[in-house]
């Protein structure tokens, strides 16, 4: 696939060859009334043969990456082990699975950054330690997930180099001790089931933008992920993001929007379900706990002042998580 928009015929083939029943049910009257839906044509960046101009010329801030170096074997094992975990009896999953009441029809397992116990920040929020399933129940599970976590972080750092160059910074600007040498990085294994009903506010995942620097997403071939490129449009226009074999989806987050002073923007997205089991593995990258998120020097001038206040990474993440949990508590009061 070239360093340009993926050929329309490829995406059309993916969508048209879906079973008619699935597509017809996916686009029910209530969903069409809620949004205008079509396939999304995203830019594809080849990490084996790319330059920062391909990032700077993006017309949207969700894109595919290919030749990322995560082998098919590593990817297949991660999905296989994810399915193994979610297939466990509820009582075994609850030994390690934190469950909160909300309106999203999904269950998830979060694997965060871990630092050694002798590290002065080992017990900081967002750094772990992780709970792990019993190896007698899921042999090889931890090793598989730690390998995928390591590989996803490597890919994100490669993308960060392109982002830095696109912003007229040194390629290693983000991979500095102050930013990504001890990042907050979270691997999430997600299992969706059920049917969405937007008219009742029921989704696989509700509309939101991601908090952090970027998200690297691997999905199975079940259609569901949608993006809204213009959140202020009325009505909002939602577009499916199909899974492309060998490609990962990259979504730039709110922190990247702040750093770039709005040059790169976070994108609203959601998941719509159609009574099919769906699995995805997003990897969320944020900088170090103490990193200050503020407008980059190359993204501001006398005529383009910083649009967002500076804030410490951990403070910002804590605020965002508390906002989400406050919404959960509000829902519980009225449920």
How would the blueprint of this fold be written?
Blueprint (H helix, E strand, L loop, with lengths): L7 H9 L3 H7 L2 H6 L1 E4 L4 E3 L5 H5 L5 E5 L5 H15 L3 H4 L12 E6 L29 H26 L17 E9 L12 E4 L5 E6 L5 E4 L8 E4 L7 E5 L1 H6 L8 E4 L6 E9 L5 E2 L17 E2 H22 L1
Parallel strand pairs: 1-9, 2-3
Antiparallel strand pairs: 3-10, 4-5, 5-12, 6-11, 7-10, 7-12, 8-9, 8-11, 13-14
Helix pairs in contact: 5-7
InterPro entries: DIOX_N, IPNS-like_FE2OG_OXY, IPNS-like_sf, Oxoglu/Fe-dep_dioxygenase_dom
Organism: Brassica napus
Protein name: Fe2OG dioxygenase domain-containing protein
Notes on the protein architecture:
By secondary structure, the protein is an alpha+beta fold. It is built from nine helices and 14 strands. The protein has a seven-stranded mixed β-sheet with strand order 2-3-10-7-12-5-4. The protein has a five-stranded mixed β-sheet with strand order 1-9-8-11-6. Strands 13-14 form a two-stranded antiparallel sheet. It is globular, with a radius of gyration of 20 Å. The relative contact order is 0.17.
